[in-house]
Amino acid sequence: MRNLVFVYGTLRRSERNHHLLYGATRIAEQAWTNGALFNTESGYPILKNTADRDVVYGELYEVSESQLARLDELEGYYGEGKNNFYDRVVNTIFTDKEIYHAFVYVMTEQQTDLLHGKVENEDWKVQHFIKQNHFLYFAYGSCMDHERFKIAGADHYFQKLVGRGVLAGYTLGFTVQLPDGGRADIIEMGGVVEGKAYEIIPDAIPYLFQREGVGGRLYRPAIIEIKINGALKEALTFIVVKKEEELAPPDHYSEEILRGGEGTLSPEYLKKIKEKIEILKGKETIV
């Protein structure tokens, strides 16, 4: 039997206990399960299994028996029915590729007093990442277009363009269906996505959250790993929450992507975007 484990806190990539997963196979960087995620004053989150439709975001790994034993030790899990600090249960885990069943460490009754408010946007890594003094933001759609920033009066937040970011393991799609056409998304289905990497400060977050419809659950903030100037760096980006069948974007949106990417993205990648949009337009014509 495969030992699949869904992690949502300090075991995630670059977090303080991630070394316990060295050598494990990452199944999905973008994974989610039902439950509610709470902060603690000790600097780690706690997942509470719930019957409602709340969602918690994290990562999915396949681990060895010895790694699972080390995770049990970290989480204070001694076995079913024992006096555990965390219980280890099997939850349904969703990814862009498929649905899995995996171990998840969830709160026990003795942890109730530790709860210290819900985690913002259901993603603990995002919550503390965007509180840094400055951090990278990866734009892959219309947010590459500086003209849109100027119109919104937000261009002062995006003055520091670090360069071209390359995101491996993802494909560009247009999975948001609005009345005038599709909007861009990244899907963890293999491939490569190019975009612009900006260095921004927390003051830019309200603008980005409003623009991306985070409050209405159109997009969600996520942390991905991009290669930029030869080095791997973590960056904030936005991913569609409810992916639908791809739809060709409207001309003005396509123009913003292509205009914004010019001079930063590779000519080969820009050509692929143009070809993809034309293919989607062709499908609509046939229908």
From TrEMBL:
InterPro entries registered for this protein in UniProt: AIG2-like_dom (IPR009288), GGACT (IPR039126), GGCT-like (IPR013024), GGCT-like_sf (IPR036568)
Annotated catalytic residues: 75 (proton acceptor)
GO MF: gamma-glutamylaminecyclotransferase activity
GO cellular component: cytosol
Entries under Pfam families matching the protein: GGACT
Boundaries of every Gamma-glutamylcyclotransferase AIG2-like domain copy: 5-125
Gene3D superfamilies: Gamma-glutamyl cyclotransferase-like (3.10.490.10)
The family this protein is said to belong to: Belongs to the gamma-glutamylcyclotransferase family.
PANTHER family cross-referenced by the UniProt entry: GAMMA-GLUTAMYLAMINECYCLOTRANSFERASE, TROPONIN C-AKIN-1 PROTEIN
Protein name: Gamma-glutamylcyclotransferase family protein
Origin species: Lederbergia citrisecunda
Species lineage: Bacteria, Bacillati, Bacillota, Bacilli, Bacillales
